Each structure stands twice: as structure tokens, then as C-alpha cells.
Amino acid sequence: MTTPDKPQPINTALLSVSDKTGIVDFAKALAAKNIVLLSTGGTAKLLAEAGIAVTQVAEVTGMAEMMDGRVKTLHPAIHGGILARRDNDQHVADMKAHGIAAIDLVVINLYPFADTLKRPDASRDDLVENIDIGGPAMIRAAAKNHDFVTICTDAKDYAKILDDIDTHHGITEPTRRQLAARAFAHTAAYDSMISAWMTEDQGQSALTPEISLAGTADMVMRYGENPHQEAVLYRMAQRLPRPGVMTAELIQGKALSYNNINDTDAAFELVAEYDRPAIAIIKHANPCGVAMADHLMAAWEAALASDPVSAFGGIIALNRPLTADLATAMTSLFTEVIIAPEADDAAKAILAKKPSLRLMLTGGMPNQAPNHLMIKTLAGGFLAQNADAGQIAMADLCVVTKRQPDAREWADMMFAWKVAKHVKSNAIVYAKDEATKGIGAGQMSRLDAARIAIAKAADMAVASGMTGNPLAQSAVASDAFFPFADGLIAAADAGVSAVIQPGGSIRDDEVIAAADERDLTMVFTGMRHFRH
After folding, report:
1. Is 75 an annotated catalytic residue?
2. How buried is 281 (Cβ within 10 angstroms: 0-12 exposed, 13-18 middle, 19+ buried)?
3. Nearest to 262 by CA among 300, 233, 237
4. Quick check: do 12-201 and 392-524 share a fold?
5. How much is the pTM?
6. If you compute the radius of gyration of the chain from its CA atoms, what whole number of angstroms results?
7. pLDDT by residue, tens only, the chain of 532 residues
């Protein structure tokens, strides 16, 4: 009788894989060690064609595969052989009474649901038929009985298994436990992916009563936000992946860091807000400068002028293809990453002279996706919410002051409101001519955010040699209501003529009165944009 703390000998192995990478060589190595091989369907056929002795599962169960292969391994002769404890006399007696042979190694990878999900031509029936049933059942059975059975769900572990057998004449307890833990993670991720597709397919909210997140390790990062933190980038399976960091091709430069990825995602999501050519420069997930114009070069110059000091070492995002003249202009600034939907060959050649700069091309721009989940971890749990895809049109806004906005003020307010959505709260954004002039981010006081934005605008004006008030006739956006009139008064004193904010404060009347006293125009959105 064997005991679970000793290496478990491998006498019989069940191999049933959809991804057959490396399976023939692995099976040959097992067969060379006189291990009996059981298999199903296509795997058995492949092994037999390779001259490897293999027993069909149907010969063990006495039942042919049926229902188009839906039923083949769901049988006591298979699950009994996997689940029986070798140190339990009753289990051993049951095996003997029913003619069940022990299965010591189970090698399975599942129907390619994720690959099917990626196919644009895949029908609902295609997806349903690629939901594996027998595979997860056997994986879970083997993982449950890891005291005696080894489960393998990844071809990368074949070498480790063979090394254990050669070195220890069986699979060691640490290896069995490690592989079992990974197996349960594998089936959990598989089920989560299917659940997410079914939820999306029915048009339901992703915020279901029970939720799990499925991700496959895409890249082990050098470190997280700080060098003492470990980090991994995970990729989630999606039927229609949104163009962005996860879909982008890295044209040049070394792998992105944790902070690079976070900032690049923030930058690209921001420029995706605009229909006209736009550029955003991001640092620490906050915009240094954002601008929209008829041409990208004008947008670049205006975005950089907003805060060229903070822009040093930042991330640049474009919502139009990168051209040679723009690439040349951008090389004047030390930049970590440039992300754009496309780039012409001349632009690529220019940036190639800056090998430390990463160029990422997404192939397109994302649409707003309210069902895209945003996750924030907590001690012992996590918060989940739909992405802030809230959009407003001029018709949705309520002018609450005596003076109506003119066309220029409308344009600047709408522009600034979209920027504010992407600035850490408390957020204040000053804009003029559809370019940011001063940004106050992440302050505990909205008044402080307003003052910081004013000070930054003044500093940039001095640095550029500008005369006059840089915020004269500008618009200001606040991501949440002004709780007191002081923040609005500070903006008015700085020179703004238009204000856009959610409204909803118990002191709205005071704020509106203060705006009217200063001949400002102010609109309420009825929607706030907190971003923590």
C-alpha cells in the first residue's frame, strides 16, 4: 500500500489533449519506461500512428464514445481509477470488485474554447460545442486525489514529470501538490471564461451575483510599482478584444514595465474619447497635457505646451496614425512610450534611432465599453464596477446661469469635461482652444486642486515667455460638484469664463449666484466622474 508523502510510481497514464504540442515525444518517453498508456479519440489516433502502444478508453469502459464524443470518459472505470485512494482498504476493495485499474497520471488540456472565442466567424453552436465536460471532470478528480495521482494540464510540465520519474522513480509530493493547485486554477479560469461569454452573449451586466476573473499569464514583470513588489501581466480571453495596450504590437523598445503599462493604458483610453485628432501626454496615470485640433501636429504642440516639464519621461498617446513629421517632433522629448493606432514606415524609421523608446501600435481605436470591468483589490476581497463610459451631449446639459455659453465656450467645456474624466479626483481641468492649460489632480480639497491648476498654468506661461493671463476666457471642468463657492471663485479670479460641473450640492444656489455675479456661464452635467 502506498502512502501520499512518498514519490508515487507511475504505472498507467491517461493522455487526452486538444493541444497536442509535444504529446508524441512525451508519450514515447513514458512508454519507454513501460508505462501503460490510455487515450481517447484524436490523441489515441495520433499516438498509434506514431507507433506508440496505446489502449483506447472505450476498451477500458466497455462503452463506445457516443453523442458526437460528448460522452466517453464519464465512467466509473475511469473516474474510479483516478479517484481511488491507494491507502484506503475499502477503495482498494471496490476497485477489485468492479475490475477498476488505477490511473496514476492524467494528462489533459481542454477543448479550445478561448481560441474559438477569438474566431470572428464562430457561431454560438461552435462555442457551446467547445465547452469541455469530461476534461474538467477528470482534471478535478485527479487534482482532488493528488496524494496518489499526478495531474498535468500544461505541456511545459512534461519535462518536470519525466525528470521526477527518472530521479525519484515516481512523482514527488511537492510536484503533485503544485500541479494540482495549477489544475484547479486552470479549470476555474476555463469556467470563468465561459461564464463571462454567456453573460455577455445575453446582454447581461458583468456584475453577476457570483464572479470570477480568468486570466492567463502573459508576461512576468521585472517588478510591480516598486522594485520590491512582484507583478505579472495577465491576459483575459475576449470575443471582441478592445484595441489598446493588450492588443498592441510592440514595434520597438524593451518590454514595458508595470507602470509603463498602467500609464499607457490610461493615455490611450483618454485619446479614444475624441473624434477629432487628439494627443494626450500622461505621467503617473494623470494627464500632463491633452489637446484636440484639426491636425495632430497642432494637437501635439498644444498638449506639450500645457506642461512640458511634467511631460519629460511620460507616455504619448495619439488617436490617429503617427507620421514622420510628428515622430521627428516627438523625439525632442524624452519619452517612455508612444502608442497609436498605426504609424507609417518613415515614422518607424525615425523612432528606430531612439532604441530605448517603445512604439506600440494597436491597429485601431477602442469604442466605449460600459460592460468592461474595473477591479480594485481590497484586503480579503475586491470592488468591481463597470467602466466609466458615461457620455453627455450638449443637449443633455443644463445651463444654470443667466448667461448662455457661446460656441467657443461650449467647445472648451465639452473638451475639458472629457479630460476631467481621466484625471484622479479631486480633479480640476482648465482648457482653452480645446487644449489643457492647467490640471489639478488627486487633491484632498477641490479648492487646492483649483489652485494647483492655476499655479501650473501660470508657471508654464512664464516658462514659455507668454504675456497676459493664460487662463483668460478659458473653461474649467470639475469632476464633481463644487461643495462651496470658493473653488468657483478661485477659477473666476484666474480668468475663466465658463464652468462645467455635475451640480447636486446643497449649496448649488450659492455657487450659481457666485457665477452670475462674475458674469460666468455654467452648465450642470448631472453626472460626475470620480476616478480613484
Report:
1. no
2. buried
3. 233
4. no
5. 0.84
6. 30
7. 567 778 888 999 999 998 899 999 999 999 999 999 998 888 989 999 999 998 888 778 777 776 766 776 778 888 888 989 888 889 989 889 988 889 999 999 888 888 888 888 888 888 888 888 888 999 999 999 999 999 999 999 999 999 999 999 999 999 999 999 999 999 998 888 888 888 887 777 777 787 888 888 889 999 999 999 999 998 887 766 788 999 999 999 999 999 999 999 999 999 999 999 999 999 999 999 999 999 999 999 999 999 999 999 999 999 999 999 999 999 999 999 999 999 999 999 999 999 999 999 999 998 765 567 888 888 988 888 888 887 788 888 999 999 999 999 999 999 999 999 999 999 999 999 999 999 999 889 888 998 999 998 888 888 777 778 889 999 999 999 999 999 899 999 999 999 999 999 999 999 999 999 999 999 999 999 898 8
Q: Please give the CATH architecture assigned to the domain spanning 392-524.
A: 3-Layer(aba) Sandwich (3.40)
**CATH architecture designation of domain 12-201:** 3-Layer(aba) Sandwich (3.40)
- Told to judge if 144 belongs to the known catalytic residues of this protein, a careful annotator would answer yes
The one catalytic residue in 118, 160, 168, 284 is 284
User: What is the enclosing helix (H) or strand (E) of 89?
Assistant: helix 89-98
Fold of 242-361: Cytidine Deaminase; domain 2 (3.40.140)
CA distance 48 to 33: 17
CB 452, CB 321: distance < 8 Å: no
Catalytic choice (144, 160, 295, 348)? 144
Domain boundaries, the chain: 12-201, 242-361, 392-524
